[in-house]
Amino acid sequence: MKNFINQLQGKEQYAVYAIKKLIAAQLNPLLIYCFGCKIVTHTSITAFNRKQRLEERRFTCDLLIITPENTVIDEEKRTEIQEMLAHFGTVNMIIHPLYFVLRKMNEDNLFFNWVHKNGMLLYDRNNSSQLLPAPVGGEIRQQAEQFYNEDPGMNNYLEVKLQPISRPEAKKESKPVAIPVEINVTMNGRQV
Length: 192
Hints:
The protein has helices at 10-27, 75-85, 98-106, 110-118, 141-150, and strands at 31-45, 53-67, 90-97, 120-124, 186-187, 190-191.
């Protein structure tokens, strides 16, 4: 997903860029990750209208915004930002301070670890992403997909933990056992 912005069309690419820029200016966050985009296009074509083609687009993006410890974002500020962004579409913002995200990642929270691994990093102030632990491996993809399929609204994102990965035991190599072999050589009718 890290490169999914290339899959977006020009309007949506511009929207993601503008959303990032506005949020960075308003909230002064450390990190902004985009972990989901949804584009719904409705096209109507009719012979009874001069304008032959009518196209409606709805754009939604999901962001994880990581702020410095001393930043407090109240509901009024969040609403103000969402109103500023409304002409681009719907922007769902999950906002947490860095210490909270770090704690959750170290507690093996699936959401924060997976967004860090697969989300698109839109904004990184002062290389703040270096403060986060190393991304988890791709072996938890199945857990992440199951979590999302069971809870697409991700209402329980704070409680879901990584499950231990069970790996099949490696086959133990057995050392070849030396089997004694008796060799009898017969030359000219005589055993040597």
